[in-house]
Amino acid sequence: MTNAARSLLTAAVSLSILGACASKDPVLYPNAHFKTVGATTAERDIDACIAMAEDHGVDAGQAEGVAGSTAAGGAIGGAAGAAGGAVLGRPGTGAAVGAASGAAGGLVRGALKARDPDPVFKRFVERCLRERGYDVVGWR
What is this structure's pTM? Predict the structure, then answer.
């Protein structure tokens, strides 16, 4: 693997780690119930609903998508790099650079997508909060 490909892969991994660490939480509309209980109680209720979802086997993350996206990116990049390298007389180098670049791109794309909670997890938490009197307006 060339130094440029290695640097690109290192940067992609760093970005994906930073992106994956920032999970999204529900945003509550300040309805009458929210105003009555206050922000501190609302945060505890959010945490309780998230814990309930996890206790019932509903996973918040989409980590398996990151691996698939990385593999697909590497395969596509490798094929494209080999084709480009063949034109220049260096298909092996082209394939290696293409695979590393494609995998890095796939990793970053997958990590950014993985920040979004699983749709079932979101519905579970939203229902729990709704039953407690809150109005979820989105996730951030």
Answer: 0.54
